[in-house]
Specification:
The complex is a heterodimer of chains A (110) and B (124). Helix content of chain A is 0%, strand content 45%. Chain A has no helices and nine strands. Chain B contains no helices and eleven strands. In chain B, the strands form two sheets. In chain B, strands 2, 4, 5, 6, 9, 10 and 11 form a seven-stranded mixed sheet that branches. In chain B, strands 1-3-8-7 form a four-stranded antiparallel sheet, with no helix packed on it. Classes of the chains: A mainly beta (110), B mainly beta (124).
Chain lengths: 110, 124
């Protein structure tokens, strides 16, 4: 069981917008920055968002991140079939003194 | 563009030690934060441990008694050893370069370069 809670799956049609939630506690999300990763099985995970809402160079602005209290959200607009992947949130947990991840959310673009 | 590549045996017998190496190219291994992360079949990501640019290591408490992480800057390699493995240690193992720092008591942490991962199966 993961420390951070994500929905197992989300789906939407091409062109639409989807959000993926990541719920934690005061020992992790509530007091630390969140990052998000896109992972296609068999490939290297890719950093999408760091510091809650900052995008590395090369990541399109269709991807956005936000944080409120002990929850974080990844938003993807203008969905494309190429966005089908697993998405993970991650942060530091002060109580565990460890990096923690969500269980992952599988995005299906219908 | 830094590249990281994991290597090691794909099959390890129960009770033996799993040993993996991460080779870094296209950039320096020194001065960065490095971690091993794994993904058991059908499950999410699990952080194993790290080697920070201060020279210290930090391990997941659930694995601490069995894990050793080392860095060899002369070879640009970062290694993982996990002893007394069981079937529960079967997973895809990733090495990743990241950044960590503290601002106003808030931890910044992310991983910006990952390897493609290597599947390790524990079976007799």
């Amino acid at each position: 069981q993961s420390v951070l809670t994500q929905p197992p799956s989300v789906s939407a049609a091409p062109g639409q917008t989807v959000t993926i939630s990541c719920s934690g506690s005061s020992s992790n999300i509530g007091n630390n920055f969140v990052s998000w990763y896109q992972h296609l099985p068999g490939t290297a995970p890719k950093l999408l968002i760091y510091d809650n809402n900052r995008r590395p160079s090369g990541i399109p602005d269709r991807f956005s991140g936000s944080k409120s209290g002990t929850s974080a959200t990844l938003g993807i607009t203008g969905l494309q079939t190429g966005d089908e992947a697993d998405y993970y949130c991650g942060t530091w947990d002060n109580s565990l003194s460890a990096v923690v991840f969500g269980g992952g959310t599988k995005l299906t673009v219908l | 563009q830094v590249q990281v590549l994991e290597s090691g045996p794909g099959l390890v017998k129960p009770s033996e030690t799993l040993s993996l190496t991460c080779t870094v190219s296209g950039g320096s291994i020194s001065g960065y934060y490095w971690s091993w992360i794994r993904q058991p079949p059908g499950k999410g990501l699990e952080w194993i441990g790290d080697f920070s640019n201060s020279g210290s290591t930090n391990y997941n408490a659930s694995l601490k008694s069995r894990v050793t992480i080392l860095i060899d800057t002369s070879k640009s390699q970062f290694s993982l050893m996990l002893s007394s493995v069981t079937a529960a240690d079967t997973a895809v193992y990733y090495c990743a370069r990241g950044y960590t720092g503290v601002v106003d008591a808030t931890r910044r942490l992310w991983f910006d370069s990952w390897g493609q991962g290597t599947l390790v199966t524990v079976s007799s």
